[in-house]
């Protein structure tokens, strides 16, 4: 694996009012790496990945994505958002647009690509996530798993270099989790840089290169999956793993 | 058999039901007998004689072609739009025909029949044509043609009425004035209302402040007060060029109605904006759609869908409020309904007849508007 840094974060902090969600996060994520972010709820893991594309503005510290610093410069924010795709827990598909239009809207309007090209791209992405036959339907007509796969296709349509997943399977019925994870595994194997907040340990074991364990706004422990499953160091990590495994 | 069963089950199911059914039936009989006795024993010649005045006021006879032209283009465009937007639904079509038959029966005379039939025929042809074309032609192109036609028609409506020696705006009157004021107030008020709603939701303090002041000012006083304002005060606000400070009262009514309705529409749309989940905005932000595209493609389309019923009831309220323009001395339908029994000796004191017809006309248009809103809602529910 090449050792080029994709996402660099240094002493990142974030306050919500007087509550400090992030208390100085320092982590580097390398190109092609699949990082799984773990931690109890309220530990700051979601906040962390949401600061990476500026959905939450960090209060201090440094965030660099592919060498571009995330600051108040609109050009920088635009560049970073064009390189970072995001998948949400609640899918957040646009309910008034067809599946195809959900995927083509951003490439057409932001990247100004011609419609025919974008349509072809969208269809090939729908093939990739396994639901080309749903292109003309509306999101509400799809199952949760299908909606989340459309959401992944929608993010991929902007041809990002990094994908963020914020608990992508937490809102799904159990029988639909696998179809989404399969898409994510395929994506990981294709070499995409991925940062995933998830509790799916099977998935994490299979594709993760590294775990980051968050608690109370700090990274308590990080390491390879083997390290976590066989030899966790911190008490907090052991307790958490014993509860979810 | 099913009907008998339904009656038995629902109207005579228990002792309480029987009592309520009998009471209700008597009440309906009581009201209906008074109403129909009046309708069938009254002399309706005053309506027959005053047909034209009720509809268009004292619009000159030799200029009537202008109104006919506007009316026929409008009718053809509406038919085409309906054909494009909806599948033929027998039940709803019967509804429209039944309600449009009311003004037709009241106002159409033998010598008008050729005109009316010509309009009906051309509208029917437009309907059939578009209905069959929409399956053959590319729907996108067809919708573009329709939108462009409406875009050309609405401004040219005024040109048709005014240009090349058209009658003065002061001569406009009757139901025609109510309709045209409502169309203007809605067409100008809706986009302005959208801007105000966005302004009020904006994070720019100044824009927000201006929007709030505008909305609260216009909602804060009754429409009658604003109409008096238009009459006495507005001229002082306008510069003394192009004789702007002496503009016609009909135009002043248009301005006031548009501003007044925009404030109400803004508040309705603001409700819709607030109903958009935060996740929608996060998703579009993450995709890199900037704030403007986010608003245009994601937030507004959804917000407006949510509030369509409320918007249509605002439209209906605006339409009925146009009858207040009598304050400016404009002889709209209601004013004419009051004038006929006051000024025409042979019909002296026969207010009830004219008022019934006036009410019926407002009612027909309002009912049709609410049916249109229901159709739009149904279709949006299907697509969701």
Q: Determine the fraction of residues in helical runs of chain A and give it as a percent range.
A: 25-40%
Strand content of chain B is under 5%
Strand fraction band of chain A?
25-35%
Biggest sheet record of chain A: 6 strands, mixed
Portion in helices of chain B: over 70%
Structural class assignment of chain B: mainly alpha
- Taking strands numbered 1, 2, ... along the chain, how are they ordered across the largest sheet of chain A? 6-7-8-3-9-10
If classified by CATH, what would the architecture of the largest domain in chain B be?
A: Orthogonal Bundle
What is the structure about, briefly put?
The complex is a heterodimer of chains A (245) and B (384). Chain A is an alpha/beta fold.
What do you see in this structure?
The complex is a heterodimer of chains A (245) and B (384). With 245 residues, chain A is of the alpha/beta class. Chain A has helices spanning 45-52, 74-83, 99-109, 115-128, 144-156, 174-189, 201-207, 225-230, 235-244; strands at 5-16, 19-30, 34-38, 60-65, 68-69, 84-87, 162-166, 193-197, 210-215, 218-223. By secondary structure, chain B is mainly alpha-helical. Chain B has three domains: 2-41, no CATH class; 60-166, no CATH class; 171-384, MetI-like (MetI-like fold). In chain B, 79% of the residues lie in helices and 0% in strands. Chain B contains 18 helices and no strands. Chain B has helices at 2-10, 15-41, 45-49, 51-56, 64-85, 90-107, 113-136, 139-162, 174-201, 205-220, 223-232, 234-237, 249-274, 278-286, 291-306, 308-321, 333-343, 351-383. The longest helix of chain B is centred in the C-terminal third of the chain and has 33 residues, at 351-383. The radius of gyration of chain B is 24 Å and the shape is globular. The mean pLDDT of chain B is 83. The chains are: A alpha/beta (245), B mainly alpha (384). The A-B interface holds A 53-55, 78, 81-82, 84-86, 88, 90, 92-96, 105-106, 109-110, 138, 140, 151, 154-155, 158 and B 277, 279-280, 282-290, 293, 297-298, 301-302, 305, 383-384.
């Amino acid at each position: 694996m090449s050792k080029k840094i994709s996402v660099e974060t240094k002493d990142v902090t974030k306050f919500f009012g007087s509550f400090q969600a992030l208390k100085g996060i320092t982590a580097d994520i390398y190109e092609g790496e699949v990082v799984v972010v773990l931690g109890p709820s309220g530990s700051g893991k979601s906040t962390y990945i949401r600061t990476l594309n500026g959905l939450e503005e960090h209060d201090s510290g440094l965030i660099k994505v592919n060498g571009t610093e995330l600051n108040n410069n609109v050009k920088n924010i635009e560049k970073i958002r064009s390189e970072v795709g995001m998948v949400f827990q609640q899918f957040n598909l646009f309910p008034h647009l067809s599946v195809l239009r959900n995927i083509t809207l951003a490439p057409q309007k932001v990247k100004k690509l011609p419609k025919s090209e974008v349509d072809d791209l969208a269809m090939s992405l729908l093939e990739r996530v396994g639901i080309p036959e749903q292109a003309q339907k509306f999101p509400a007509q799809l199952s949760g798993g299908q909606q989340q796969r459309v959401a992944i296709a929608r993010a991929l349509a902007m041809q990002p270099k990094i994908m963020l997943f914020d608990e992508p399977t937490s809102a799904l019925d159990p029988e639909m989790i696998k179809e989404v994870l399969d898409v994510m595994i395929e994506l990981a194997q294709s070499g995409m840089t991925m940062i995933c907040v998830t509790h799916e340990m099977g998935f994490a074991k299979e594709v993760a290169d590294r775990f980051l364990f968050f608690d109370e706004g700090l990274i308590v422990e990080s390491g390879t999956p083997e390290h976590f499953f066989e030899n966790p160091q911190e008490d907090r990590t052991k307790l958490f793993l014993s509860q979810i495994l | 058999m099913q009907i008998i069963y339904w009656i038995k089950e629902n109207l005579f199911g228990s002792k309480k039901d029987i009592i309520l059914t009998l009471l209700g039936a008597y009440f309906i009989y009581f009201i209906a007998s008074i109403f129909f006795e009046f309708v069938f024993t009254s002399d309706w010649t005053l309506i027959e004689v005053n047909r034209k005045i009720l509809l268009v006021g004292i619009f000159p006879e030799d200029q009537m072609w202008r109104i006919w032209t506007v009316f026929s283009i409008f009718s053809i465009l509406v038919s085409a739009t309906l054909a494009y937007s909806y599948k033929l639904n027998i039940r709803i079509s019967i509804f429209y025909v039944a309600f449009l038959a009311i003004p037709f029966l009241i106002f159409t005379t033998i010598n008008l029949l050729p005109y009316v039939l010509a309009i009906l025929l051309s509208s029917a042809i437009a309907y059939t044509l578009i209905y069959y074309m929409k399956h053959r032609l590319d729907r996108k192109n067809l919708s573009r043609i329709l939108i462009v036609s409406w875009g050309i028609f609405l401004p040219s409506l005024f040109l048709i009425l005014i240009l090349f020696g058209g009658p003065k705006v002061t001569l406009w009157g009757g139901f025609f004035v109510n309709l045209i004021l409502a169309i203007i107030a809605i067409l100008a008020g809706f986009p302005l209302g959208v801007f105000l709603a966005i302004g009020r939701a904006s994070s720019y303090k100044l824009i927000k402040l201006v929007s709030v002041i505008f909305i609260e000012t216009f909602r804060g006083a009754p429409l009658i007060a604003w109409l008096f304002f238009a009459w006495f005060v507005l001229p002082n606000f306008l510069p003394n060029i192009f004789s702007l400070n002496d503009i016609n009262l009909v135009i002043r009514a248009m301005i006031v109605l548009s501003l007044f309705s925009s404030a109400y529409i803004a508040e309705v749309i603001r409700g819709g904006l607030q109903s958009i989940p935060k996740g929608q905005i996060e998703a579009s932000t993450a995709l890199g759609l900037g704030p403007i595209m986010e608003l245009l493609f994601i937030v507004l389309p959804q917000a407006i869908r949510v509030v369509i019923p409320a918007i249509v009831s605002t439209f209906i309220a605006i339409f009925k409020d146009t009858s207040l323009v009598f304050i400016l001395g404009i002889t709209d339908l209601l004013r004419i309904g009051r004038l006929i029994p006051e000024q025409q000796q042979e019909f002296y004191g026969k207010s009830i007849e004219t008022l019934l017809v006036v009410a019926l006309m407002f009612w027909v248009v309002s009912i049709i508007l609410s049916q249109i809103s229901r159709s739009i809602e149904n279709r949006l529910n299907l697509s969701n």
